[in-house]
Specification:
This protein has 174 residues and is mainly alpha-helical. It is 20% helix and 6% strand.
Length: 174
């Protein structure tokens, strides 16, 4: 059966359970609700606090843009006349403790989980009781056959895998 929503109040909750009915796409709101119903139930992250990054740009080494021999990876300037070390206005910023992330949200991915590197199915079993805090990431050197096994077992354990589609599409095309 199809439910028609009243136009006067589109934000009212429907009395019938939504997973048994397919809503008529009357507006943007109902399209969102319908797409969420169809999606598989996966582990919901435990993290409720918003992740705030104080700085997302990397600190680059001063003069790395001018000289090839000076690489961009950060090194603290130690020269006696260095403008960067002396913190003049308008020069390259130096990293310091104030740029650190909040302890409660440190190392969390944007999806709300912490990353855990997995090489085989046995390592995935560790995440069974921690599936709301950690998500699995399959290591780069794991074969396609083992990847499929890991992804299947992760679905059974309700563990989120960040790179579950990696190496599957390229093999199917051949």
């Amino acid at each position: 059966p199809k439910i028609k929503a009243q136009r006067s109040s589109p934000h009212k909750t429907l009395a019938a359970p939504l997973n048994h009915f397919r809503l008529q796409p009357l507006g943007f709101l109902f399209l969102l609700v319908e797409s969420r119903i169809r999606r598989e139930a996966m582990a919901v992250p435990l993290l409720s606090k918003k992740i705030v990054k104080k700085r997302v740009k990397k600190f680059i080494r001063p003069q790395s843009d001018r000289k090839i021999s000076v690489k961009p990876s950060w090194r603290r300037p130690k020269g006696i006349d260095s403008r960067v070390r002396r913190k003049f206005k308008g020069v390259t910023l130096m990293p310091n403790i104030g740029y650190g992330s909040d302890k409660k949200t440190r190392h969390y991915l944007p999806n709300g989980f912490k990353k855990f590197l997995v090489h085989n199915v046995k390592e995935l079993e560790i995440l069974m009781m921690h599936n709301r805090k950690y998500c699995a990431e399959i290591a780069h050197n794991v074969s396609t056959r083992k990847r499929k096994e890991i992804v299947e077992r992760a679905a059974q354990l309700d563990v989120v895998v960040t790179n579950k589609l990696a190496r599957l599409r390229s093999q199917e095309d051949e």
